[in-house]
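pasting Arginine repressor for the record, 150 residues
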Amino acid sequence: MTDKRTRQALIRDLIRRQPIETQDQLSELLAAMGIPVTQATVSRDIKELGLVKVPHGNSHYYALPEEAGLMQARDRLRRLLGEVLVSVTPAENLVVIKTVTAGAEVVSEAVDGLGWPEIVGTLAGENTVLVVVRSREEAPEVARRLEGLA
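structre below
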């Protein structure tokens, strides 16, 4: 029999490695690892770990509380960029994001919420966001990743 601490560590690892939509799916994965659990045990573990369901595409997946905010920020930015993005251009240690009129402020806030360590901060106008990146070497990669979210 696996103790609670070990089981919960395995649950955290599973949540980080793959999308898990239901308690049943989590129970099946644990059982496949030789750890049979009841629905009540899985439910209790989810509550104790503070797991939250976050939207991702057309589904919802369990996430650790410390990762849920980042997942939600990425999903929000993906939706926003799909609606308002005009262009993304690296320039020295900046990335310039052009949006439709009145789109820059919300995009700026969403970029700040990503928590990417390469990004120092953002500044928004009416239709332009300046993303300040730590170095000019990192700016093209940040621009590529931002475009990839759109």
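The radius of gyration is 19 Å.
The chain has six helices and six strands.
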